[in-house]
Amino acid sequence: FEPWKDPDEKPLIQFRNVTKKFGEFTAIDDITLDIFRREFFALLGPSGCGKTTLMRMLAGFEAPTKGSILLDGQDIAPVPPNRRAVNMMFQSYALFPHLSVWDNIAFGLKRSDMARDKIGARVEEMLRLTRLEQFARRKPHQISGGQRQRVALARSLAKAPKLLLLDEPLGALDKKLRQDTQFELMDIQEKTGTTFVIVTHDQEEAMTVASRVAVMDHGRMVQVDTPDRIYETPNSVYVADFIGDVNLVEGTAEPAGDGRLSIAWAEGQPAIMATAPDAISAGARVHFAIRPEKIAISTVKPADRANMIEGAVHDIAYLGNISTYKVEVAGGRMVKAQVANDRRISRRDISWDDKVWLSFTDTAGVVLLN
Ligand code: ATP
């Protein structure tokens, strides 16, 4: 089930070979991408990869150097920012301090050609949507940070844009409030059916709120996919490393003859057995990527598993629900294993310097060529 892909519907936004240069510098490098109606789409990547530039082109503050951007099938190049069915919500919220919550939300509507009697109803609707009814008469300095964030959201949605751009919308909130607000944001997005594009530095946030995530690097889209596929089947070392925690092992691949791949990675160590795309040729240099929670750890040798590696516990991080073990294996390499803390493994079972076995199945990781 892929809710953003309605076969009868054209994409809301189409980037067609879009390049953006600032002088000689290429900030966006030949991006082709469709974003569908009702999608919650996240742009993720390190600082300077081009996320904001992409948003600013959608908003109309920048024009592509090459290529075109279509909204609802129409090239938006000739449409000025204030005439686009696009709104942008900034991290600073940019609320008017001297206006009440009600007037802040009404501001854009009053400047539009909406009939006076409709404005009141629309503001009330936005207040209800963002649960701000009882704060309508207050000024921005008389409400909390989370409430201010909701006013900004209500104001951005008041004119019912087809597309809302959110630039680090939760950046000013502390962690707990931020997590609660993520669910609220998803809820409001679903209720209004507006397409949201969010820029965030926080990969957990992107994974939480978005239906699809684009991982960017140097102005290019490296992988565009659902959060679970980005996490489970990254298409490159870059994506595997950028999203979540990962163990990356470089080695030489040999087809094992049974459809599996054997990856020689350290002298005197058994090769890693992995299932892999059949395109990998004998002797190819590959990276094997495996998430820490896919590796089991025990002080006794486990019953036969496809992969078993001996090591010694170097570090333990107890995080309440989970514990992370840093285990030193052959050649001084560190491998991270993560286990849920339930009654089966108490943290007293494994301690520093213990000799342990790390084990994982042949489908637990991914083999990457680049
Ligand atoms: P951050 O997460 O730090 O906001 P970003 O991914 O949003 O980064 P952009 O702001 O899109 O990155 O910038 C992409 C690249 O383009 C950066 O190297 C930046 O220095 C450059 N850039 C952006 N705007 C301009 C400009 N007006 N003139 C020259 N270079 C620019």
UniProtKB/TrEMBL annotation:
<comment type="similarity">
    <text>Belongs to the ABC transporter superfamily. Spermidine/putrescine importer (TC 3.A.1.11.1) family.</text>
</comment>
<dbReference type="GO" id="GO:0015847">
    <property type="term" value="P:putrescine transport"/>
</dbReference>
<keyword id="KW-0378">Hydrolase</keyword>
<dbReference type="InterPro" id="IPR013611">
    <property type="entry name" value="Transp-assoc_OB_typ2"/>
</dbReference>
<keyword id="KW-0813">Transport</keyword>
<dbReference type="Pfam" id="PF00005">
    <property type="entry name" value="ABC_tran"/>
</dbReference>
<dbReference type="InterPro" id="IPR027417">
    <property type="entry name" value="P-loop_NTPase"/>
</dbReference>
<dbReference type="InterPro" id="IPR050093">
    <property type="entry name" value="ABC_SmlMolc_Importer"/>
</dbReference>
<dbReference type="Pfam" id="PF08402">
    <property type="entry name" value="TOBE_2"/>
</dbReference>
<protein>
    <recommendedName>
        <fullName>Spermidine/putrescine import ATP-binding protein PotA</fullName>
        <ecNumber>7.6.2.11</ecNumber>
    </recommendedName>
</protein>
<dbReference type="GO" id="GO:0016887">
    <property type="term" value="F:ATP hydrolysis activity"/>
</dbReference>
<dbReference type="InterPro" id="IPR003593">
    <property type="entry name" value="AAA+_ATPase"/>
</dbReference>
<dbReference type="GO" id="GO:0005524">
    <property type="term" value="F:ATP binding"/>
</dbReference>
<keyword id="KW-1278">Translocase</keyword>
<keyword id="KW-0067">ATP-binding</keyword>
<dbReference type="InterPro" id="IPR008995">
    <property type="entry name" value="Mo/tungstate-bd_C_term_dom"/>
</dbReference>
<dbReference type="InterPro" id="IPR003439">
    <property type="entry name" value="ABC_transporter-like_ATP-bd"/>
</dbReference>
<dbReference type="InterPro" id="IPR005893">
    <property type="entry name" value="PotA-like"/>
</dbReference>
<keyword id="KW-0472">Membrane</keyword>
<keyword id="KW-0997">Cell inner membrane</keyword>
<comment type="subunit">
    <text>The complex is composed of two ATP-binding proteins (PotA), two transmembrane proteins (PotB and PotC) and a solute-binding protein (PotD).</text>
</comment>
<dbReference type="GO" id="GO:0043190">
    <property type="term" value="C:ATP-binding cassette (ABC) transporter complex"/>
</dbReference>
<comment type="function">
    <text>Part of the ABC transporter complex PotABCD involved in spermidine/putrescine import. Responsible for energy coupling to the transport system.</text>
</comment>
<dbReference type="GO" id="GO:0015417">
    <property type="term" value="F:ABC-type polyamine transporter activity"/>
</dbReference>
<keyword id="KW-0547">Nucleotide-binding</keyword>
<dbReference type="InterPro" id="IPR017871">
    <property type="entry name" value="ABC_transporter-like_CS"/>
</dbReference>
<keyword id="KW-1003">Cell membrane</keyword>
<feature type="domain" description="ABC transporter">
    <location>
        <begin position="13"/>
        <end position="243"/>
    </location>
</feature>
